[in-house]
Request: fold
Amino acid sequence: MSQRTVEVVPSADALAGRAAELFVSLAQDAISRRGRFTVALSGGSTPEKMYKLLAEPERSARIDWSRCHLFFGDERHVPADDPRSNQGMARRALLDHIPVPPANVYPVPFSHPTAAEEAAAYETRMAPLLADFDLLLLGLGDDGHTLSLFPGKPALDATTLVTWSPPGVLPPPVDRITLTFHAANLSRHAVFLVSGAAKAATLARVLADDADPRLLPAAGIRPENGTVTWLVDSAAAGMLST
Ligand code: 6PG
Reply:
């Protein structure tokens, strides 16, 4: 059963700072224990601030990036230079500013005509890393989705490690490639970053004991042999019972 922690910080900036420091400590621990640190990066807007803080020289220097392997928890089926690309955001905010070897970054390549084919190719490429990965960074959509696991969509039932999904109700309206619950729950540490009052009602529902992962997929993130940490700012925590 996953160990769950909810940590409330005062602001979005404090959230980004706390998340960046947690990333550093998890990286240092993984590298000292196992010689490498493997991370599924999240898309969306919330992690961008954290990525920029990680790229700051004094913090970046605390990580041996040559030992890090960075891939993506989900991706939109668009070219990397498309403004909706998660890879594009991660490159602008972090990857282009740290000395991670290019061979250690595993984007979802826009190299197949359909998201289904893209997902199958990504699974083949990532299966070895997914079998033993350290950190899964996650966001929370207002509809309770995480990764690109949207309420009621077939991707929730996938038995593979990577699958595809048609768009959910939230933008952008493009097909997605996403880790499945099966893959997500292989992580050692799943860390959600949730910011803003708009997420407060959904967060309270997701954290409730009776949350249904089919309606609130974020509730289905329960690493079999890992931890779930919810880093939330006060605005997002506004409806949590104390
Ligand atoms: C994506 C993300 C998605 C995101 C949530 C929250 O590709 O959009 O993986 O799951 O984390 O939609 O997004 P925000 O952080 O922008 O609110």
About this structure: The first strand starts at residue 3 and ends at 9. The pocket of 6-phosphogluconic acid is lined by residues 42-46, 74, 86, 139-141, 145-148 (CB under 6 Å). The chain is about 30% helix and 20% strand.
